[in-house]
Amino acid sequence: MLGWKIMVTNQNIPQVGNIKKAKLTDQIFDTIKELILTEQWPAGYKLPSEPELANQLGVSRMSLRMALQKLQTLGLIEVQVGNGTYVKEISVSTYFEEIGSLLTHMASLQDILELRIALEGIGIRLAVQRHSPEQMEQLKRCLHNFHEAVLQYDREKIAKADADFHECIIEMSGNKLLTMIYRLCSKTFLDYFKVTTTTTKILPPDYDFSDELHMRIYKALEKGDNEEANRVCIETIEHSTLSWGHNNSGEAK
Asked: Which of 3, 40, 109, 175 is least buried, going by the fewest C-beta atoms within 10 A?
């Protein structure tokens, strides 16, 4: 019996030790990450040497090294051999573009349609309630840019202006997490819209109708008409997305 009990104890001890070690590494990681994200350690800042930093934090060099490896993997710091460790300049847009490219290759047309309706449906309902006069002015400028692009029949400008218009509405929601998620997906949306506007034979009247839909969204927001804003927003998404599928299926024939 005694031998059996010792065997169980020996099995349990390493598990407890590993958990504590992992927690310590995470605490070191979180501490340094906070210093970087709050810019107490700005881009270009040289970290103290490993022994010095370990001493300041009151941790072992091994635990510190593991935390630094996680920070390096995330791209928050870089190790320059023979010169020390430095804080890297954080570029969120770079991460968004890389992930956005991955999503573009993973997503189907139906995936894009459903995701846009879900995100923008929530966004526009909040935007109706929370928008400021300054944000409405910004949206008006986006609307003007879209209208001008349609008049010029400039497909690249149309795609960019459309993306700016819809992202502006998401920002008007006042929900930071929703805005971040939308920006993460925006490259995928824009890539599909560019396919719509640059590789298919869409007639000018389709652009005119899209222009009209954007104007109706703006007016619904201006009036505070939640139901109309949501309905027209969904109609706009379906029009731009499904026209892509329709035109491509026609060309395939």
From this structure: 3
pLDDT tens for each residue of 203-232: 444 778 889 999 999 999 999 999 999 999
Q: What are phi and psi of 38, to 5 degrees?
A: -90, 0
- Residues near 148 by Cβ (< 8 Å), separated by ≥ 6? 157, 161
Whether the CB-CB separation of 54 and 14 falls below 8 Å is answered with: no
Non-local (6+) Cβ contacts of 214 within 8 A are 143, 146, 147, 162, 165, 236
- Tens digit of pLDDT for each residue in 163-203? 999 999 999 999 999 998 898 888 777 776 665 555 555 44
Calculate the alpha carbon distances from 31 to 24, 54, 63, 67, 153 in Å: 11, 12, 13, 10, 52
- The DSSP result for 75-108, as a single string, is TSEEEETTTEEEEPPP-HHHHHHHHHHHHHHH--
Rounded Cα distance between 21 and 15, Å, is 10
Cβ atoms of residues 114 and 76 within 8 Å: no
For 39, the 3-state DSSP assignment is: coil
